[in-house]
Design a protein that fits this description.
The complex is a heterodimer. By secondary structure, chain A is mainly alpha-helical. Chain A has helices spanning about 1-30, 85-90, 100-120; one strand at about 35-40. The chains are: A mainly alpha, B mainly alpha.
């Protein structure tokens, strides 16, 4: 009973903090942020926000075709030579901080291993 | 028994977190699903220490030693960072949401939130581990190292021959 009560409280806290995080981000970002939407044929492209019928879906954004436009994810303009296209083609869905994580985790594991060895010997 | 249970849950949580924290090594598909698993194990970890959390929170403004006070602060900030990582993770999700036929708008807003909160969480996890290092070392020694050593000693004793050692000092003399 005690454990169930604690689990319910923990779940309530998760929801409350989650709503707070979402609320603060949505307030700061404005209309760019929204609740998850159902993917339909009329959906905005999740990558570039365009409504082209040849939407590239969740994959890396293709090069913009000559004469074509794409909503810039940074400032919302529709210039042919989007200055943030590198973010679409190279940074979209690419983990960027992994090398830092690997370094920190690697050092931590090394330290833990050294202490474990010293404990065991 | 409680220490063994906590040690197992903590080890599983650390292992799952280490996998989830390295999306470049695992790929985004594994990263997203394992992260949800990490949230569930982290919730179990939280529930198992709920009594300590409530008691420390109750005494937070009164008389309380420095260590539990800092432990609680680190734990609360880590909890918030974890939820921020998860919420922003859904914002940049490429696989989990798509399985249910959804996508989240605002990728370029959630992406930096996800990166910053993930790095903050990693730092807090390391601090959390360091602050509980004595407990971890004691638990590992008493629940894994010593029982293994005792078992190995018993196995070696059982494997030893029954004949007396001929080069013992008593025999030589």
């Amino acid at each position: 009973m005690k454990t169930i009560k604690a689990a319910v409280w923990a779940a309530v806290l998760v929801v409350l903090v989650g709503v707070a995080v979402y609320g603060v981000t949505a307030l700061a970002a404005g209309s760019d942020v929204g609740l998850p939407e159902r993917v339909t044929t009329a959906s905005r492209c999740p990558v570039a926000g365009c409504t082209s019928s040849s939407c590239h879906g969740a994959g890396p954004a293709p090069e913009v075709a000559v004469g074509g436009t794409m909503v810039c994810p940074k400032v919302g303009c529709e210039a042919e030579t989007c200055h943030a296209s590198d973010r679409l083609t190279s940074h979209y869905n690419e983990p960027k901080t992994s090398s830092l994580n690997l370094w920190i985790l690697g050092l931590s594991l090394f330290t833990i291993a050294m202490i474990a060895i010293s404990l065991y010997l | 028994m409680k220490i063994t249970r906590d040690l197992i849950i903590d080890a599983v949580l650390l292992a799952v977190y280490a996998i989830a924290a390295n999306p470049a090594a695992t790929g985004l598909l594994i990263h997203e699903w394992v992260s949800i698993g990490a949230l569930l194990v982290a919730l179990v970890h939280t529930v198992l220490h709920w009594d300590w959390t409530v008691e420390t929170l109750r005494r937070f403004l009164g008389k309380l030693a420095v260590a539990p006070r800092w432990n609680l602060v680190i734990d609360v900030v880590a909890f918030v960072a974890f939820i921020a990582v998860m919420i922003s993770g859904f914002g940049v999700s490429r696989h989990v949401l798509l399985v249910f036929g959804y996508f989240a708008p605002g990728y370029f807003v959630w992406k930096p939130v996800h990166s910053i909160s993930a790095v903050a969480l990693l730092a807090l996890v390391i601090v959390h581990l360091a602050m509980h290092w004595k407990w971890i070392a004691t638990a590992v020694r008493t629940r894994i190292v010593e029982p293994l050593g005792a078992r190995r000693g018993a196995a070696a004793g059982a494997a030893a021959p029954d004949q007396p050692c001929t080069d013992s000092p008593e025999r030589v003399s």
